[in-house]
């Protein structure tokens, strides 16, 4: 099991009538897993682009940083939303 699927997997613990504990495991949708993997890969690629931009042009590019921040926010929101609901 890959770590993205493991992070997005929801585990619900409930007690039965006699005090027995049950764990319900809900697997995430495949499209959600692929979207999160793609967003993480794009954030890594954009980070490399920002490093190259700073190394060769000796300046900071705000647009690339905003894209990286947006992707990280997207992934964080997906993970928190998947666990909370």
Report on the architecture of this protein.
The structure is a single chain. The protein is α+β, with helices and mostly antiparallel strands and 85 residues long. The chain has one domain. A two-stranded antiparallel ribbon has the order 1-2. α2 packs antiparallel against α3.
Mean pLDDT comes to 89
Strand residue content: 5-15%
Uncertain segments are none
Radius of gyration using CA atoms only: 19 Å
Give the tally of β-strands.
2
Helix content: 55-70%
Q: Order of strands in the sheet with the most strands?
A: 1-2
Helix/strand structural class: alpha+beta
Number of helices, counting only DSSP H or I runs of 4 residues or more: 3
The tally of structural domains comes to: 1
Query: Please, what is the oligomeric state?
Result: single chain
Molecular shape: rod-shaped
The major sheet is characterized as:
2 strands, antiparallel
- Element string (H = helix, E = strand): HEEHH
CA distance, first residue to last residue: 22 Å
Topology, please?
Layout: H1 3-8, E1 10-15, E2 21-26, H2 30-57, H3 62-84
Antiparallel strand pairs: 1-2
């Amino acid at each position: 099991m890959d770590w993205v699927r493991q992070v997005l997997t929801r585990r619900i613990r409930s007690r039965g009538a006699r005090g027995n504990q049950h764990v319900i495991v809900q697997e995430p949708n495949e499209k959600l897993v692929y979207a999160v993997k793609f967003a993480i890969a794009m954030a890594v690629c954009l980070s490399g682009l920002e490093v190259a931009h700073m190394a060769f042009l000796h300046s900071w590019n705000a647009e690339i940083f905003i894209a990286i921040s947006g992707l990280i926010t997207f992934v964080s929101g997906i993970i928190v939303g998947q666990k909370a609901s």
